[in-house]
Write a structure and sequence with these properties.
Number of helices: 2
CATH class of the largest domain: Mainly Beta
Oligomer: single chain
Number of domains: 7
Radius of gyration: 61 Å
CATH architecture of the largest domain: Sandwich
CATH topology of the largest domain: Immunoglobulin-like
Number of strands: 56
CATH superfamily of the largest domain: Immunoglobulins
Largest sheet: 6 strands, mixed
Structural class: mainly beta
Shape: elongated
């Protein structure tokens, strides 16, 4: 009984320590997969308790007779040198090498097929315009040691140009060289290792480029420089470019230029091309084994004239040192320029000169003021000269522009600064000023400075001054500027008050009016103006120390304006307000000179005046009328003698008027009683 219990206990303990190994699950390559590498990795799932695995790999579907291989420490194995294009079968089981040893059942049998050809990548089949050093590229394949590649102009790879070679498997592309231009090439690749070689890949083809693409200048381009850069698309795998230009599309003229350039650049700068000429050009490429066709022929036409920039055509008020500017043109050595006051450039003032092409502008000098100038430019190099540009014109400034004091300014100091806009290109300015608008006897100053202002001094207070400026240089002077005026500040600030004739008086006698006004403190003299227009553009003008002044003979039926201002030797007050009066009708104005007709003496007198009629044209019978300053008749009588006496001893001192009326003739004379 005891023995039986011990045996059962031992069996129970063994059952507790023994576990059945799981059959491994095959992972990759998946069953039935194709195009597998010749070093395909066999991978399976782990089995709990396994210390190693055994696998079988063979080309027999049942794996009969295939020896099992053992692997420890991993659940995958890398194959090597599998045969290409072959179906392989494989299975795995888990084993336990520790006591008690054990093994699982074999897994199901999976299969995969190895790749048998290489996939071509680039250039794509049928590709065109490929370089003569085209890179042929294929998909890399692991587990191989070499690639064999071949290209040829024959699809059967048996022409004299056939190229067969091999490359280690570290790369999967090859750069061709010196392929013939404009030729279709066929190519293929295969892989190999120590045990086998794939089939050749499918045959692919590409065609090499046979001509160069021209880039610039665009076909038909106009106004190109005489050193135009001709540019084409670069082509790899060539050693030289041949280029040619000519004025003939057949490239056979005496001006034909043929040359070559190494392939490090794909452009050439021309030089000394003829102006206004159509050029044809083409390019081809070459290497040691072949040359492309010439490119399509392109053409461009060179520029034939210069574009003028500034001053703009018809510009006015330009300085006498005006900068003439034109558009720069590359590839020339000189510019010829010309200006003249004649559009035909044949006047004595014509200026013709040249300047190196490093600049495209010229500063004129000493141009005549207020003159229209015509100008033009042309360019040249060693082989040719452009046409003259279109003719442009500008007109120089003819007068200075005033700035300050502003025109008609008032209250200006007696030492003001006059300022004007500067003009460049001159030697200096002249300025002048005067108290009359026509600059009679002006004060003139000349300055060799180009400063555009001057300080006037010792001007009179309360006086209107007119001023103008002109510029000059070595050969000419501008016109005087338009005159501006200003009035200095008043030292006498109060204007005279007018007294008589009363404002808007009517029917004043045309033989004259006595103007009266009130005194202004500190005044030593007075100036008055009488005119038949309110602007006083042509006035009767006089000065007096009195507070009245007689106008003398006036026109009949006329409205007169008058005003007065006070002075003290240093300046004047403002003008008074303007008053008016209107004269009466005059029936006859055919009045001879008084000295030849009618005289009064002594004059002034104490009141007794001797009168004598000298003119034989006057009858001895005359009407005599005596008027006071207010135009009132104080005496009237008929005179029949050539000589007669006027007695005013009973009247107060002052001014009176004698009016002699003979038929239709009227003679007026002023007399003064003291």
């Amino acid at each position: 009984m005891k023995t039986t219990i011990t045996l059962l206990f031992s069996i129970f303990c063994n059952l507790q320590t023994f576990a059945i190994l799981n059959v491994p699950t095959l992972l990759s390559p998946i069953n039935g997969s194709t195009n597998n590498a010749p070093n395909e990795i066999l991978d399976w799932g782990t089995s709990t308790g396994a210390t190693a695995y055994q696998y079988k790999l063979g080309t027999i579907a049942s794996l009969a007779g295939v020896n099992a291989q053992t692997i420890t420490g991993s659940s995958q194995v890398t194959t090597s040198n599998l045969l290409f294009g072959t179906v392989y079968y494989w299975q795995v089981r888990a084993i336990k090498t520790t006591i008690p040893a054990d093994s699982s059942d074999w897994s199901a049998i999976f299969n995969f097929t190895t790749v048998d050809f290489i996939l071509l990548v680039a250039p794509t089949n049928g590709a065109l315009s490929q370089a003569p050093n085209e890179v042929i590229d294929w998909s890399a394949l692991s587990g191989v040691t070499f690639y064999d590649y071949q290209w040829d102009t024959s699809a059967t790879f048996n022409s004299p140009l056939s190229n067969y070679n091999s490359i280690a498997s570290g790369t999967s592309q090859v750069t061709t060289s010196n392929l013939r231009f404009g030729t279709k090439y066929y190519w293929r690749v295969r892989a190999r290792h120590a045990a086998d070689t794939t089939q050749w890949s499918f045959v692919s083809n590409f065609t090499t480029v046979d001509f160069i693409f021209l880039v610039a200048p665009t076909n038909g381009a106009l106004s190109q420089a005489p050193n135009e850069v001709i540019d084409w698309s670069a082509l790899s795998g060539v050693t030289f470019y041949d280029y040619q230009w000519d004025t003939s599309a057949t490239f056979n003229s005496p001006l034909s230029n043929y040359n070559s350039i190494a392939s490090g650049t794909s452009q050439v700068t021309t030089s000394n091309l003829r102006f206004g000429t159509k050029y044809y050009w083409r390019v081809r490429a070459r290497h040691a084994a072949d040359t492309t066709q010439w490119s399509f022929v392109s053409n461009f036409t060179t520029v034939d004239f210069i574009f003028l920039v500034a001053p703009t055509n018809g510009a006015i008020n330009q300085a006498p040192n005006e900068v003439i500017d034109w558009s720069a043109l590359s590839g020339v050595t000189f510019y010829d320029y010309q200006w003249d006051t004649s559009a035909t450039f044949n006047s004595p003032l014509s200026n013709y000169n040249s300047i190196a092409s490093g600049t495209s502008q010229v500063t004129t000098s000493n141009l005549r003021f207020g003159t229209k100038y015509y100008w033009r430019v042309r360019a040249r190099h060693a082989a040719d000269t452009t046409q003259w540009s279109f003719v442009s014109n500008f007109t120089t400034i003819d007068f200075v522009i005033h700035v300050s004091p502003i025109n008609n300014a008032t209250g200006i100091a007696v030492n003001p600064i006059i300022d004007w806009s500067p003009i460049s290109g001159i030697n200096g300015y002249q300025y002048r000023y005067s108290t009359v608008a026509n600059f009679e006897n002006p004060i003139v100053n000349t300055s060799v400075s180009t400063t555009s202002q001057a300080t006037l001094s010792n001007l009179t207070f309360g006086t209107e001054y007119f001023w103008q400026v002109r510029a000059f240089h070595a050969t000419d002077s501008s016109e005087w500027s338009l005159p501006w005026s200003f009035t200095t500040l008043y030292q006498l600030t109060t204007a005279p008050v007018l007294l008589s004739p009363a404002n808007a008086s009517n029917s004043l006698l045309a033989f004259g009016a006595l103007l009266e006004w009130e005194a202004v403190p500190s005044a030593t003299l007075y100036q008055f103006q009488v005119d038949d227009n309110a602007q006083f553009s042509s006035p009767l003008f006089n000065s007096t120390t009195e507070l009245s002044e007689f106008t003398g003979q006036l026109l009949g039926e006329t409205t007169y304006y008058w005003r007065v201002r006070a002075g003290n030797g240093s300046g004047f007050s403002p003008w008074s307000t303007v008053w008016t009066f209107t004269t009466d009708i005059v029936t006859d104005l055919n009045i001879e000179k008084l000295d030849n007709i009618f005289t009064v003496y002594p004059n002034p007198s104490n009141g007794n005046f001797n009168c004598k009629i000298k003119s034989a044209n006057l009858k001895t019978e005359n009407n005599i009328e005596i008027y006071n300053l207010n135009g009132k008749v104080i005496q009237q009588y008929l005179n029949t003698d050539a000589s007669f006496l006027i007695d005013l001893t009973e009247f107060q001192s002052g001014i009176y008027f004698v009016k002699l009326i003979n038929n239709k003739e009227i003679i007026t004379q002023k007399i003064i009683k003291y």
